[in-house]
From TrEMBL, chain A:
Family to which the UniProt record says this protein belongs: Belongs to the VPS35 family.
Entry annotated with the keyword Hydrolase: no
Organism the protein comes from: Chloropicon primus
Protein name per its UniProtKB record: Vacuolar protein sorting-associated protein 35
Hydrolase among keywords: no
Record-linked Pfam families: Vps35
A GO biological process held by the record: intracellular protein transport
Subcellular location: Membrane
Keywords on record: Membrane, Protein transport, Transport
Membrane topology qualifier: Peripheral membrane protein
Superkingdom assignment: Eukaryota
Function according to Swiss-Prot or TrEMBL: Plays a role in vesicular protein sorting.
Automatic annotation (TrEMBL), chain B:
PANTHER family attached to this UniProt entry: VACUOLAR SORTING PROTEIN VPS29
Record-given protein name: Vacuolar protein sorting-associated protein 29
This protein's UniProt keywords: Hydrolase, Metal-binding, Protein transport, Transport
GO cellular component: cytoplasmic vesicle; cytosol; retromer complex
Pfam families recorded: Metallophos_2
Any one GO biological process: retrograde transport, endosome to Golgi
Calcineurin-like phosphoesterase domain segment(s): 4-158
Origin species: Chloropicon primus
InterPro entries xref list: Calcineurin-like_PHP_lpxH (IPR024654), Metallo-depent_PP-like (IPR029052), PdiEstase_YfcE_CS (IPR020935), Phosphodiesterase_MJ0936/Vps29 (IPR000979), Vps29 (IPR028661)
GO MF entry, a single one: metal ion binding
Family in the record: Belongs to the VPS29 family.
Length: 790, 184
């Protein structure tokens, strides 16, 4: 039996962490102890012991056991002690030792690492002493540090050098030393930077491959040690844009490119962008972007470029005047776009898309007036670069933002000049293209923007072609969502009302609508039935206000071709209704031939295209309503039309439908017109016959007029014409009275049954009686012959 | 008291693109208790929009409505008043008072609301009321030279109603008021 474990099981990581803590504690204790002796020696002014114990203390930094983070803690501990040591050396100089003597002395220390720390410490005293040229001392130190090639130890030693050399660099800047120039200071920092970066990159390859991930994480945490050098360079006031462009930037880039390390490149390129001033970037754009092109393939070049562009865009926002001058002078946009295009071809679709999104944003923000041309350039390059790429869904989202962002910044009518907009749209999935198209349409509708000419309308159709045209292949036909199409097409249809000439030019507006028809036809039957009716109504509006008869006829002729398309969908009822609208307008414009042509077309549909009886009854009602509203047909033509309507009414299947339809036909004839008044009578009598036939047949089904109601309705029609006629030209009071008596008889048999239809008929009857009474009061003479039985 | 919105002939999208913003600003949700619509709404989107104003909505079928669920006519009792609703394209001649009068008698209503002509009209017919709220969108009509967007509100109090009419002229909403009382 195994003994029960007393402590909870520990993972390998926990064991390692505990070990690290222990090692660090041990090393720190040792540093503390040696520092104690060192300080005692300092108090005793014993130079030999000071060397001895400080060397021993610094010897602790030779450890290889600690992780970079733990090593950092240890370094900080030692660093604190070194400041006391430096003060001691400074004092020694006052006591008769020269700095160069001390510099010689420390070189006797046994181990290389303690020796170099001591050398750097004394070095800073030496620099301050003016005993030698600062330039040569810095050069000496930075080269001596090359003695440590262990990545972590070397990196921290050089960090120490960075920290202690600041004073020397300041002295050079203050021109204390005639022999040393800003160039020398820059050279020193660049050299130290280069060496530090090499060490930092080499860290990656220390230790087993399986711990690479962990090591990269540790390495990332040390990045600011390397970046600090760039901060120092950027803070040197004498480094102007010229020196930056000729020396500093090329040298930094040389190291960044050569190190071929993704972590270092991502970090350092961003560091350059962030620490140096905007003006430097603008003036050295080409060098930087060229450098970007040479980075490692795993480096996120897009992010780097976007970072640069973002920085420039911010500059624009913060200092619009200074920046725009600089941008134009240095052709920032052009210098950005061309190399960025080259880079975009080498990276993935998402990276490329984000580069173009950033440049577009920059173009929009920075180039007033020229912006649209530039936006088009960006879109053009973008479409070109991604034409054959595999566009990921993330890239699609970025591309979508490229397309929708300008919608908020520019007038839509201006955007329509962007030739490459549809090309970028093509890169998206059909669903996304639709979403962008819907965005565009909704923007236009919301703002009430007018699209004023054929050119712009054509361009708009190109922009939204995905939603207008039927691009789906036949295989997809099964998953067509008709409701969705209807909703989209209703939106498109609303758009048509926004397409018109702004100065009311009928020719321009008509040309626009002709184009609209042409484009809509590409949408196939599912779409045209929703979109084309709008074209019909908008053309009719033009006809209504046009005084040019010839042009009106041309436009009406065009409508035939539009409605034919709708008819062939097939949507015969819709086409029929549209023809009726055309008849009304043509009649209003006194274009009788056109009106008659439309009527012929409508009749043709009625006879051959209306599918069922119910639809026929409806259609006939509409036709009769339409014809009764026309006032400009010649006698012969109208005769033909009204006869046809009457004939069809009589042919309807149900007697009740016949009755209602035929008494409606009575309204087609003017009772005051002698030639036609007879026809009114014929219709009314025919209706009465139909009502009687209906009565003789089976009971009416629910919802339809019962025979009694039909009689009452006919009575009402008699009253209508009785009232309208002059004297008793046509309808005698006697006729009305006969009908009234008939109705009275019919209704008296209804009173007791109480069914819904009976109740309705009775109310209708009573209301009719009240109407007659009211008429008798108003026109006592005319109605005197009518007597109402109570 | 019930506030009743009475409108119709929207004709979106075929004849016009939307209801005027000025009207939308007035027709806020929760203000009216019922909607009487004379039809020719034409799309589901517009019907859904009307539903946002008030869910209690009565619609009759217009000439260009393709929703076959709408009835041809409808009678709605509000307070002590009977409202009749008909689009009007089947009332021949269109907009004719006498013909509408016959429909009023047939439907046995106190107020007959019809549309189709796109022309706002209220007419005291014998002791009844005929109302055409016009086109709320000011949609084009093949008969009229021009159209003014309009609608009306009925404030119904048992047998009485105050009618507020709204018309959009030169970008401004003109409001008028009239009364109707049903005779005993």
């Amino acid at each position: 039996m195994e003994p029960p474990s007393t402590s909870p099981p520990t993972t390998m990581d926990q064991i390692l962490a505990a070990e690290q803590d222990k090692w660090l504690a041990d090393a720190k204790a040792a540093v503390k102890q040696q520092a104690f002796y060192m300080k005692k020696a300092i108090d005793e002014d014993n130079l030999r012991d000071v060397f001895k114990y400080s060397s021993a203390m610094l010897g602790e930094l030779r450890t290889s056991l600690l992780s970079p983070q733990k090593y950092y803690e240890l370094y900080m501990r030692a660093f604190d002690e070194l400041r006391g040591l430096e003060m001691f050396f400074e004092e020694q100089r006052g006591k008769g030792h020269t700095a160069s003597e001390l510099y010689e002395l420390v070189q006797h220390a046994g181990n290389v690492l303690p020796r170099l720390y001591l050398l750097v410490t004394v070095g800073s005293v030496f620099i301050r002493s003016h005993e030698s040229s600062i330039k040569s001392l810095l050069k000496d130190l930075v080269e001596m540090c090359g003695g440590i090639q262990h990545p972590v130890r070397g990196l921290f030693l050089r960090t120490y050098l960075t920290q202690t050399s600041r004073e020397g660099l300041n002295l050079i800047e203050c021109k204390v030393d005639e022999e040393s120039s800003t160039g020398d200071a820059v050279e020193f920092v660049l050299q130290n930077f280069t060496e530090m970066n090499k060490l930092w990159v080499r860290m990656k390859h220390q230790g087993p491959v399986r711990e690479r991930g962990k090591r990269e994480k540790e390495r990332k945490e040390l990045r600011d040690l390397v970046g600090k050098n760039l901060v120092i360079l950027s803070s040197m006031e004498d480094v102007g844009v010229e020196m930056y462009g000729e020396i500093v930037l090329p040298r930094i880039l040389e190291q960044v490119v050569n190190c071929k390390d993704e972590l270092a490149q991502n970090y350092l390129m961003d560091c350059i962008i962030q620490v140096f001033p905007d003006e430097f970037h603008i003036k050295t754009m080409e060098t930087f972007v060229e450098g970007c092109g040479n980075l490692h393939q795993d480096t996120n070049v897009a992010q780097i470029l976007c970072g640069l562009i973002k920085r420039l865009s911010n500059f624009m926002e913060n200092e619009p005047e200074t920046s725009s001058g600089l941008f134009e002078e240095h052709q920032t946009f052009e210098r950005l776009l061309d190399p960025a295009t080259k880079i975009s071809e080498k990276v993935g679709s998402q990276a490329a898309a984000s580069i173009y999104a950033a440049i577009l944003d920059f173009a929009v923000k920075t180039s007033e007036g020229k912006a649209l041309g530039r936006v088009d350039q960006v879109l053009s390059k973008c479409a070109e670069a991604l034409k054959t790429a595999d566009v990921t869904s993330q890239a699609s989202r970025t591309l979508k933002s490229i397309l929708t962002t300008p919608l908020d910044s520019y007038a839509i009518t201006d955007l329509l000049d962007l030739k490459s907009y549809p090309d970028v749209m093509q890169l998206l999935s059909p669903q996304m293209q639709n979403a962008v198209a819907v965005d565009i349409i909704e923007k236009i509708l919301k703002k009430g923007t007018i699209i004023p000419n054929v050119k712009k309308v054509a361009s708009l159709f190109d922009f939204i072609s995905t939603i207008v045209e039927d691009i789906k292949s036949e295989e997809d036909e099964d998953d067509v969502d008709e409701e969705e199409i209807e909703e989209e097409q209703n939106l498109v249809a609303r758009l048509v009302h926004q397409m018109k000439s702004e100065d009311e030019s009928i020719d321009e507006s008509f040309a626009i609508l002709k184009l609209a028809k042409e484009r809509f036809e590409k949408g196939g039957p599912l779409r045209v039935k929703h979109t084309l009716p709008t074209v019909v109504f908008d053309v009719l509006q033009l006809v209504k206000r046009d005084d040019d008869e010839e042009r009106c006829e041309k436009m009406l002729k065009f409508l035939h071709s539009v409605i034919e398309v709708i008819s062939e969908v097939p949507e015969p009822e819709k086409a029929f209704k549209l023809y009726l609208e055309c008849i009304l307008v043509a009649d209003m414009k006194k274009l009788e031939n056109s009106a008659y042509d439309f009527a012929t077309a409508a009749f043709d549909i009625y006879e051959n295209g209306i599918p069922d009886q119910k639809a026929q009854v409806e259609a006939l009602k509409m036709l009769i309503g339409c014809l009764s509203s026309c006032s400009n047909f010649g006698e012969d033509n109208f005769d033909a039309l009204s006869s046809a309507a009457t004939k069809w009414s009589i042919k309807l299947l149900k007697k009740s439908d016949q009755c209602v339809s035929v008494f409606s036909c009575a309204h087609l004839f003017n009772i005051a017109d002698e030639g036609n008044s007879e026809k009114v009578m014929v219709c009314l009598k025919r209706a009465l016959t139909a009502a009687k036939q209906a009565q003789g047949m089976a009971k009416s089904s629910r919802g339809e007029l019962g025979p009694v109601e039909l009689f009452i309705a006919i009575l009402n029609k008699y009253l209508f014409f009785f009232d309208k006629q002059e004297g008793e030209a046509l309808i005698k009071a006697e006729d009305v009275q006969n009908l009234l008596d008939l109705v009275s008889n019919e209704t008296s048999s209804l009173t007791t049954s109480g069914a819904e239809g009976n109740d309705r008929a009775l109310k209708f009857y009573h209301n009719t009686l009240r109407h007659i009474m009211s008429q008798k009061e108003k026109f006592p003479e005319k109605y005197s012959a009518l007597s109402l039985k109570s | 008291m019930v506030l009743v919105l009475c409108l119709g002939d929207l004709h979106v999208p075929y004849r016009t693109s939307d209801l005027p913003q000025q009207f939308k600003d007035i027709l806020l949700p929760g203000k009216v208790g019922q909607i009487l619509c004379t039809g020719d709404i034409c799309t589901k989107e517009m019907y859904d929009y009307l539903k946002t104003i008030c869910t209690n909505i009565h619609v009759v079928k217009g000439q260009f409505d393709e929703d076959h669920a709408y009835p041809e006519t409808k009678v709605v009792k509000i307070g002590d008043l009977k409202f009749g609703l008909v689009h009007g394209h089947t009332v021949i001649p269109w907009g004719d008072i006498s013909s509408l009068g016959m429909v009023q008698r047939q439907m046995d209503v106190d107020v007959l609301i019809s549309g189709h002509t796109h022309e706002f009209r209220t007419y005291a017919y014998e002791d009844k009321l005929l109302v055409n709220p016009g086109s709320a969108t000011g949609a084009y009509s093949s008969k009229e030279a021009s159209t003014t967007p309009s609608f009306c509100l009925f404030d119904v109090d048992s047998t009485k109603a105050t009618i507020y009419t709204y018309k959009l002229k030169d970008g401004e909403v003109k409001k008028e008021k009239m009364f109707f009382e049903k005779r005993a």
